[in-house]
Amino acid sequence: MQLGQGRRTAYGAMPNPAKGPDPQMRTYDNSYSRFIAWVKVILPLAALGLLSTLFLFSRGSDGLQNLPYAQSELEQLAQEQGFRAPQYATVTPDGTAISLEADRAVPNAADTGQGQAQNLRGRLDFTDGGFAAITSAQGVIDSDQTTAHLSGNVEIETSQGYVIMTQELDTALNAVRLSTDTPVDIQSPMGNLTAGGLDLRPDENDPNSYVLVFNQGVKLIYDPQTSGDER
User: Fold this and answer.
1) pLDDT band per the 50, 70, 90 thresholds, residue 148
2) Distance between CA atoms of 105 and 119, rounded to whole angstroms?
3) How many CB atoms lie within 10 A of CB 21?
């Protein structure tokens, strides 16, 4: 019976600690470390590249160059706080479409609800197909009162063939209402008229119709149209 000789284990050979870590594990650790090191360098560089691209795009498309204003107009707008080509449009309860536009408008420093406008053009489109086109050299638009005071070569042209000229005209912006107390000259199908004022307002007997009244000394110069053969 031999004791202590060559007993074999069923578990196989045990690794020798003196030989150090596995070479494959060491290769994996080195590759992973190099990857992390490169990521720490590449990501900041990529971020800087994106930022520089954004700055290049923002500098390349200057917003001021795309505005439809010249430099002199921008300086003037900054000083006067003006608006170019303002427009207003609405529809009254009876269906009449009202529109008003101007070449330019400047707010009133003393009253923010008012603005001085230049070269105004207004229009009333009635439900029956008729219209009234209005022009003036200037005017004051009051947004709080929803009115406009037109002045300077005011002209009204209607689809019925009337051409009315005066120097001042008050108009509502939310209803069909025109009035003036200044002298008016009227060219109409029946002849030429002069009056001290006019008033366009809804007909009391028919809310869907309007009455144009000339007042304060109306004079008519009748110019009948000739008919038949001329002799």
Assistant:
1) very high
2) 9
3) 8
Is the pLDDT higher at 14 or at 69? 69
**Residue located via tokens 């869907």:** 208
- Number of independent structural domains in the chain: 2
119 and 41 inside one domain: no
Residue 169 neighbours by CB distance under 10 Å: 25
Domain assignment of residue 5, yes or no: no
Q: Tell me the C-alpha distance between 171 and 88, whole Å.
A: 13
Rounded to 5 degrees, φ, ψ at 120 are -85, 150
Residues 112 and 196 in one domain: yes
Q: 204-219 b/e with 16+ CB inside 10 Å = b?
A: eeeeeebebebeeeee
pLDDT digits (tens, 9 = 90+) for 192-231: 999 999 999 888 888 778 888 999 888 887 766 644 444 3
Residues 46 and 88 in one domain: no
Tell whether 16 is covered by a domain: no
Domain extent at residue 36:
21-57
Beta strand pairing call for 97-107 and 210-215: unpaired
pLDDT exceeds cutoff 70 at 79: no
Same domain? For 44 and 154 the reply is no
